[in-house]
Every structure is written in C-alpha cells, then in structure tokens.
C-alpha cells in the first residue's frame, strides 16, 4: 500500500476548480451533498475550505442502486440526511472516486426525490475513467489510469489519505 | 405444526444467514433483529421526503393474501410495498376463491402464474405462512402478517423499533405485556423479540384464564395483580381484548376486566415516570385502556403505526434480497 497522492494538494485543486466554476455560474451559496462514505469526508473538507455555514447533506444510495436484482440490499445501509430543501437549490454533489458513473446516477435520482434542484455540479477527487454511463464530473482533482490489478481507496476521516494497492 | 417448529429456522434463512422469508422470530438472533431495526431506521427517513418512494422493488409484484380481515396491517403492508415501488395486489381471500371451493394450493398456483414475487400472508390457522413457504416456487418470498395464535413478527419488530427510538436500546428495560395473552400472537412474538434483544425483564400481566399454559417457558415472568405488576416498568404494552375470539366465559365482564387490568392514569402512575404506553391497535377505549392514557404524553401508539410502514419496508426488501442472493448462488453453482 502506498500513498502516492498528496491529499492537501488534491483538495486544493478541487477547491480551486469548484470556486472557478461557481464564480462563472454565479453560485454563491451552494448546498453540499456527499455520497457515503468517502464523498462525505470530502464534502466536510470542502465545506471548511469554502467557508460555508450550512451543514452538508449525506446520501446513502443503497436504496437506489441498479444491481439490487443481482446482489440484493446493502446490509449496512444508513439513513440519508439532507438538512435543507433541495427544491430550487444549486447543489454540489461530492464523491471521492468516479468510475462507472452508476453511483452518480443513483445519487441524482435520490436527490430529485427530495425536490427539484436548480442545478447539480459534480465534484470528484479522483476520476478513474472506465465510464459505463454518459456522466462526467464538472470538477476533478486528479485523473488516474489504473492497471487491471490496481485499486484505489480513500481512507479517513482523520487523516484523509488515498491508498493504492495491487490485487492478485 | 407447533409454535416452535425448528424447521422454520432453515426455512426462513439462506445458507449464509440472510432473511429470505419472514415467518417467525423463533431462531432469529439479535444481530439479524438489529439489522432489521437499522434498515427500518433508514426507511423512516424515506417517509419524511417529498417523494416517499425508493426504487428497490420496482418491477416486483407483492400479493397481500389476507385470509382473515385486517385494516391496519394490510394497509401498512400495502403502503410499504408501494413505497418500495412494487406493484401490489390485495386479495381478500375470506370473501373470494376459497368460498367457491378452491383449495389453498390451487389459489397459490394461480397467483404464482401471475409471476408474483412475494406473498404477505395473514391466516387464522397457525403455521399457514410456514406451509406456504415450504410449497412455494423458489424465488418467492413469504412474509407472515399474523397466523392464528402463533406469531405476528412484523408487529413485534415495529414495537421494538418504537421502544429503541424512545429508550435508546433494550439493556436494563423492564417491559410488561398486559391483557389477553392467551389469544395473542402479538404477545408471543413480542416476548421472543424482547428476549432476543436483551431486555432485562419481560412480564406478562393477566388473569389466569387469559394466559396460555406454561407461559413462563416463553421467557417471561407472570403477575396476576396489575397494581403489583406496574412497579418499575419502562414500557407497558396493552393488548386488545379479542372479543371475537372469546369462547366461553373467560371473563366475568368487560367492566370487571377494565377495573382489574385496564390501563388507567392511576395504574400508569405506579410505573416509572417515563414509562412508554404502547398498544398494537385497534384500541378499545374504556375496555383495556383509558382514553386519557391512550392520548396522553406517554403514549406512543401512533408512532407505532408510522414505524409499522418502515419495518415492513425493511423486512420486505431484506427478504427479497435474500431470495436474490440465493438465486445468484444457485446460478453460480451451476457454473
């Protein structure tokens, strides 16, 4: 296991990209939503960096996954919690890693069940490519191309670090 | 079919210990019951959203098979299935096919031919859901919505969820169940659940004529005098006096019953000041509970109804999930 990537630098990049995009779109007070578990940690870090007072939301997408009829329900499901009205809000959806895009599809479906947001920006720390759906992040800190045997995982919450490991 | 049929255990669990039917609490361990309560907690949050629906059982067909009438249980099962995005068919069999002479097995074959994925079964015969689970096509989940005097496991679990919400857990709790224990499938399931989850004491309070023989073997203490029985209680669960099931003279009169075993404000004052008042409903005001108590600050009777939807969503999705993983495994073994 190695920590190849510097977390502070990654978060700096994510914050800078987000600030630039929000300024361009005229968004001053976005509602942050993190996807459990890694996305929640990143959302927490972004909230502090962006100086937002409003608590961020937490999504557990277990009830919205598209593979229920293949693998069943995640036994560790926890309640989602969005402590604000989503109706008409500009949302920043945050996850640690994006790959197939299926998690993001599920998360967007879930957000819409709380109300219709004005917009959703997708911010992810790492993009591993290999998309299976036409979903692209608006802000990415780092794009990585892994070998088939390599896996990355965000560990946290304190300290946050990226682990890369080789599988058999 | 006995109330503690050991084969229920393997019948309702997959080889890896997941729920695939939900027939009885017998043989289910604390960890699984806790999983049900945790999953139900997540569904409570869904019930507070603008759109109270998740796509988990989209495309699945749930059949409510009620051989015995019920309003609350059937409607909360229906709402639970709909909030999971399932298609729901309500069959009131007591007024339907069986009255035309069709056997239970034939009724089931017909329903399976409609590609049903789950049967929610209420029956006046103890063991009927168990019988159906044994004979049903693989992949179809059976949920017990109350069978005879045997079990009503979803009711017991929604009561456990209500207790956990208000008390934080079960450690050290003294819980009494009061009234017609003899005819109550709810009481049997509650006693089992409370013991499995680690309550300190489960006490039944009733006249001898309304207690089953050997009631202590279910895992409870017995108190015939309610004045004594109310001491130190954290939770008191009142049962409905099952008038329609009363055969012969088990009670002198309703008024006498209320005087001795009705939950009045005076009797409630004997319990701990934060004692919860619960009742599975429908309540008979002035028969087993005083109106002021049923509507009072210690009453969580309406929370129980709300929790009933969440618990049923949890059990339905977990059983369907167990069926899915068993099928996946079977396919895997075939190569």
TrEMBL record, chain A:
Pfam families: Pribosyltran (PF00156). Keywords: Glycosyltransferase, Transferase. Gene3D superfamilies: 3.40.50.2020. GO terms for molecular function: glycosyltransferase activity. Residues 8-138 form the Phosphoribosyltransferase domain. SUPFAM superfamilies: PRTase-like. InterPro entries: PRTase-like, PRTase_dom, PyrR_bifunctional. This is Pyrimidine operon attenuation protein / uracil phosphoribosyltransferase. It comes from Marinobacter zhejiangensis. The lineage of its organism: Bacteria, Pseudomonadati, Pseudomonadota, Gammaproteobacteria, Pseudomonadales.
UniProtKB/TrEMBL annotation, chain B:
Residues 171-318 form the Aspartate/ornithine carbamoyltransferase Asp/Orn-binding domain. Carbamoyl phosphate binds at residues 72-73, 122, 152, 155, 281-282. GO terms for biological process: 'de novo' pyrimidine nucleobase biosynthetic process; 'de novo' UMP biosynthetic process; amino acid metabolic process. GO terms for cellular component: cytosol. The keyword Metal-binding does not apply. It holds the Pfam family OTCace_N. Pathway: Pyrimidine metabolism; UMP biosynthesis via de novo pathway; (S)-dihydroorotate from bicarbonate: step 2/3. L-aspartate binds at residues 100, 185, 240. Keywords: Pyrimidine biosynthesis, Transferase. Transmembrane segments: none annotated. It catalyses: carbamoyl phosphate + L-aspartate = N-carbamoyl-L-aspartate + phosphate + H(+). Its EC number is 2.1.3.2. Coiled coil: none annotated. Belongs to the aspartate/ornithine carbamoyltransferase superfamily. ATCase family. Catalyzes the condensation of carbamoyl phosphate and aspartate to form carbamoyl aspartate and inorganic phosphate, the committed step in the de novo pyrimidine nucleotide biosynthesis pathway. This is Aspartate carbamoyltransferase. It comes from Marinobacter zhejiangensis. The lineage of its organism: Bacteria, Pseudomonadati, Pseudomonadota, Gammaproteobacteria, Pseudomonadales. The gene is pyrB.
């Amino acid at each position: 296991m190695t920590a190849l990537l510097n977390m502070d630098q990654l978060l700096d990049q994510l914050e800078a990209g987000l600030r630039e995009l929000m300024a361009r779109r005229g968004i001053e007070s976005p509602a942050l939503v993190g996807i459990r578990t890694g996305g929640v940690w990143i959302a927490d870090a972004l909230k502090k960096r962006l100086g937002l007072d409003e608590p961020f939301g937490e999504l557990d997408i277990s009830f919205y996954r598209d593979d229920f009829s293949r693998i069943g329900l995640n036994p560790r499901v926890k309640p989602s919690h969005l402590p604000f009205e989503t109706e008409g809000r500009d949302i920043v959806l945050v996850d640690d890693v994006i790959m197939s895009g299926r998690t993001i599809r599920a998360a967007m479906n879930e957000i819409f069940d709380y109300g219709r947001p004005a917009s959703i920006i997708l911010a992810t720390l790492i993009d591993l490519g290999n998309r299976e759906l036409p979903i692209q992040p608006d802000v990415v800190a780092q794009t990585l191309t892994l070998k088939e045997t390599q896996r990355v995982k965000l560990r946290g919450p304190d300290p946050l670090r990226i682990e890369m490991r080789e599988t058999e | 079919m006995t109330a503690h049929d050991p084969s229920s255990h393997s019948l309702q669990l997959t080889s890896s210990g997941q729920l695939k039917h939900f027939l009885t609490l017998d043989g289910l361990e604390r960890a699984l019951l806790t999983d049900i309560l945790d999953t139900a907690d997540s569904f409570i949050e869904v019930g507070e959203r603008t759109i109270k629906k998740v796509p988990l059982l989209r495309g699945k067909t749930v059949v409510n098979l009620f051989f015995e009438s019920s309003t609350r249980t059937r409607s909360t099962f229906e709402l639970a299935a709909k909030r999971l995005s399932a298609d729901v068919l309500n069959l009131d069999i007591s007024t339907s096919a069986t009255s035309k002479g069709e056997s239970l097995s034939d009724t089931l074959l017909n329903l399976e031919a409609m590609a049903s994925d789950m049967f929610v079964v209420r029956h006046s015969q103890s063991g009927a859901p168990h019988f159906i689970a044994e004979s049903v096509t693989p992949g179809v989940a059976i949920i017990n919505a109350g069978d005879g005097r045997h079990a009503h496991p979803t009711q017991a679990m929604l009561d456990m969820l209500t207790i956990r919400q208000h008390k934080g857990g079960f450690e050290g709790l003294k819980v009494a169940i009061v009234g017609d224990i003899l005819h109550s499938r709810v009481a049997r399931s509650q006693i089992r659940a409370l013991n499995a989850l680690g309550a300190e004491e489960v006490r039944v309070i009733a006249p001898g004529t309304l207690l089953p023989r050997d009631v202590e073997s279910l895992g409870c203490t017995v108190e015939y005098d309610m004045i004594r029985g109310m001491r130190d209680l954290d939770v008191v669960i009142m049962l409905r006096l099952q008038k329609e099931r009363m055969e012969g003279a088990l009670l002198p009169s309703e008024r006498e019953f209320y005087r001795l075993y009705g939950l009045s404000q005076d009797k409630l004052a004997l319990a701990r000041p934060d004692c919860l008042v619960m009742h599975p409903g429908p309540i008979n005001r002035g028969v087993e509970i005083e109106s002021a108590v049923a509507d009072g600050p210690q009453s969580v009777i309406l929370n129980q109804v709300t929790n009933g939807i969440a618990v049923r969503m949890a059990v339905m999705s977990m059983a369907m999930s167990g069926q899915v993983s068993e099928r996946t495994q079977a396919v895997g073994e075939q190569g």
